[in-house]
Amino acid sequence: MNAITNVLLFLSVAYGAAVIATSLAICQPISAGWDQDTVAGKCGNEIAAYLCLEIIAAVLDLAITGVPLPPLAGLRVPPRKKLTAYVLFSLGSV
Is residue 44 over pLDDT 90? Predict the structure, then answer.
């Protein structure tokens, strides 16, 4: 469990760095990203870049949400309480 948590932590930090790098590198010069009317520059395909980043974020969020679920399966509690625990821990996916 600790190894999975550490991997997900590393992936989250790497994802954050990728978002920052994409934001800074998608337009040349950087100011063309927010002032395309007065700054002469060019931007890459922002829609595709951010769509890919958001898909990665969704997968990463689902993985993070799923980490506590397997240990819950081993709980010796009535099924109703176990289902309540699953729902409670899965609320982060919403």
Answer: no
